[in-house]
Design goal:
388 residues, mainly alpha, 3-stranded antiparallel β-sheet, 68% helix, globular
């Protein structure tokens, strides 16, 4: 008891002690809850997924998710202890490494479901674009803040080059869903940096035009859109079964491990983990999941907007938008509100790359929103208008 008291005393000046007393507890608690629930849910979906893939051990995916969760937690803790300068440096090297890995994917990448998005290392597949996303947001926020200083650094131009390079490599894979996600997060960072509304409208128009063009450029995008608008003419097996799972769960669910739709939907433990959770635990549990993401995003944006440094403000807010938008897209697909995207639910869906990258994303966000001398203004800052 005494050792625990001293370890977390306010006078403890160790790295762990400083981290504990400067990190936002609401953000940390919501993140920890999501990681724990992600592991719990995999024990319900793993047996069906293992049986479908002829894997003898029923809890193969659940145990792997435990390993991923441990790795993601370690990355989250390590990243959250960084200084803002450390976050920038880490983002720079991670972006370079991810871009180089994405550049060689067409030649050395692992192909699955018609896309080449993974690098295979000793039986483990890693998706470089997952790590590129948070690094990109931090770097463009850095460039926006440098551009505002008026010291001749073409920050906005560099930020757009970083974004265009990332989008170009994503579309080669192809991965339209991730392209949409980073475009929204990039646009949010652009807007929060205080650019004139005319620039926002131009970027928005270009984004809409680019997104619309993917319907004609990529067959799989056209197929998904057609399935979404013409259910009676196309095969919508996965989406229909996911909707049935949610309805079957009712208010209180069928009970842990008692869901039946996971036996007929190939991606129930990954892209449709939300539907599996709704079937086994019910509407109340689904709302708890959504509430945890809302706490994470709303609290994160609130803390971000009170930061005094423009880079920290935009970078932290952009990272929380990134997490929130990915969760929104996944849940919207599960509810059949938008065409399928093949995007994971952060911390909940099975997947090593997603878990590790989300640990990195929120670790960086926690690092930027930690209490430090001069980090927060006395009053919430309005949007910086230096671009205007």
């Amino acid at each position: 008891m005494t050792a625990q008291h001293h370890a977390f005393a306010r006078t403890d000046r160790s790295a762990l002690g400083l981290w504990w007393w400067t990190t936002d507890r609401w953000l940390l608690g919501a993140t920890a809850a999501l990681i724990a629930l992600g592991v719990l849910l995999q024990f319900g979906t793993s047996p069906a997924a293992a049986a479908r893939l002829n894997i003898a051990w029923p809890f193969h995916f659940a145990v792997r998710q435990c390993v991923f969760a441990a790795g993601g937690t370690a990355i989250l803790l390590g990243a959250s202890m960084l200084s803002p300068k450390g976050v920038r440096r880490a983002a720079f090297f991670i972006y370079i490494a991810a871009i180089l890995a994405m550049a060689v994917l067409p030649f050395l990448g692992h192909n699955a479901k018609g896309a080449t998005r993974w690098v295979e290392i000793s039986g483990f597949t890693l998706q470089p674009s997952e790590f590129m996303k948070p690094a990109l947001i931090v770097l463009v926020a850095w460039m926006f803040s440098e551009g505002q200083k008026g010291q001749g650094v073409p920050g906005v131009s560099i930020a757009f080059c970083l974004y265009i390079l990332a989008v170009g490599l994503l579309l080669i894979e192809p991965d339209v869903g991730q392209t949409v996600l980073i475009t929204v997060a990039f646009g949010a960072a652009f807007w929060m940096a205080g650019v004139p509304m005319s620039w926002i409208m131009v970027l928005g128009g270009a984004a809409i035009a680019g997104l619309s063009s993917t319907y004609f450029l990529f067959d799989h995008v056209a197929s998904r859109v057609d399935r979404f608008f013409s259910h009676e003419k196309t095969d919508t097996h996965q989406v229909d079964r996911a909707a049935e799972a949610i309805a079957h769960g009712g208010l209180f669910g069928q009970g842990p491990g008692e869901g039946i739709m996971k036996r007929s939907v190939p991606d129930m433990h990954t892209d449709f983990a939300y539907s599996a959770a709704a079937e086994e635990y019910g509407l109340w549990f689904s709302l708890i999941l959504i509430a945890l993401f809302m706490i994470l995003v709303v609290r994160g944006l609130y803390k971000s907007m009170k930061l005094s440094d423009p880079f920290e403000q935009v970078a932290a807010a952009g990272l929380f938008v990134l997490v929130g938008m990915q969760a929104f897209i996944n849940v919207a697909v599960n509810l059949n509100l938008i065409p399928t995207k093949g995007m994971t639910l952060p911390f909940i869906s099975y997947g090593g790359s997603s878990m590790l990258a989300m640990g990195l994303t929120l670790g960086m966000a926690l690092a930027l929103t930690r209490k430090r001398p001069g980090a927060y203004a006395n009053e919430g800052l309005g949007r910086n208008r230096a671009f205007g």
